[in-house]
Write a sequence for this structure.
């Protein structure tokens, strides 16, 4: 091979490397921050879903990262995880989860399909210790005040999850609870409201309510916007050569004013024309997360 050919090959290889590097740099520069794939190697879809749903809340995502020097190990490690999610396009969150939920008795790393509610509550309880004067989540006293009206179990204090067993949707539930004439008017409503749908809403009455999860709702003169929904579905899983159906959770959430589907390592942007079917009228919704703008 002549020197000219050698130089030519070097130039070609160098050009390809430079092109690939340029594409990667441009991708990282223009990539929507916070749009990150999360590995799920041990059945942690319910934790992935909870984290992705909360990161869809603008105020939460910006406020929590200010506590990067927290003495609370849960908050400290949560902030480290969130910063990593914001700066990367694909991570393995398991090492962070094991630090965050080290003292959580209900997190079993060998059990699949756990309930995101226990994750919401655990995080809310620890985060509230860092923001005692914030209304990011409902205060303990206010939770006790509204408990008689919405039957929130005591372990949901700080992060009351409104349980909906009917087919009235998010708007109907909020109207029936927070706008109840007997509601204690001294309650300071939280920045984030989480609604839990107990059953699949296959027979939802769309003649009464346009959406299952309305894009926005007004609660006691406060306007709340839908930030994310967690969907629970059955997926086939092979266990010892036998295929069984297991619960699997994934999220539709907002990032940079766009809707995405966060399904562990599968992340896809949702087209505007598909929002009704996939987000606002999704009959498999398990949790809906609303936040004050």
């Amino acid at each position: 091979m002549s020197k000219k050919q050698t130089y030519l090959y070097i130039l070609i290889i160098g050009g390809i490397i430079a092109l690939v590097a340029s594409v990667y740099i441009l991708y990282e520069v223009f990539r929507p921050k916070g749009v990150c794939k999360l590995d799920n190697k041990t059945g942690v879809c319910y934790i992935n879903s909870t984290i992705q749903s909360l990161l869809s809340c603008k105020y939460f995502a910006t406020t929590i990262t200010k506590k990067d020097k927290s003495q609370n190990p849960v908050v400290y490690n949560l902030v480290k995880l969130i910063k990593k999610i914001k700066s990367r396009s694909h991570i393995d969150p398991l090492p962070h989860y094991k630090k965050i939920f080290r003292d959580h008795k209900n997190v079993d790393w060998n059990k699949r399909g756990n309930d995101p509610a226990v994750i919401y509550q655990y995080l809310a309880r620890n985060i509230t210790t860092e923001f005692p004067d914030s209304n990011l989540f409902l205060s303990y006293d206010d939770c006790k005040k509204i408990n008689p009206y919405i039957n929130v179990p005591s372990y949901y204090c700080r992060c009351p999850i409104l349980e909906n067993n009917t087919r009235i949707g998010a708007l109907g539930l909020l109207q029936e609870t927070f706008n109840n004439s007997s509601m204690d008017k001294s309650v300071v409503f939280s920045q984030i409201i989480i609604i839990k749908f107990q059953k699949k809403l296959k027979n939802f009455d769309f003649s009464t309510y346009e959406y299952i999860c309305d894009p926005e709702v007004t609660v006691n003169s406060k306007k709340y916007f839908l930030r994310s929904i967690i969907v629970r579905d059955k997926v086939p899983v092979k266990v010892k050569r036998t295929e069984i159906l297991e619960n699997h959770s994934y999220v539709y959430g907002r990032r940079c004013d766009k809707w995405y589907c966060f399904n562990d390592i599968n992340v896809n942007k949702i087209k505007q024309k598909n929002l009704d079917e996939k987000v606002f009228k999704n009959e498999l919704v398990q949790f809906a997360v609303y936040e004050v703008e």
Notes: The mean pLDDT is 79. DSSP finds nine helices and ten strands in the chain. Residues 27 and 249 are 28 Å apart (CA to CA).
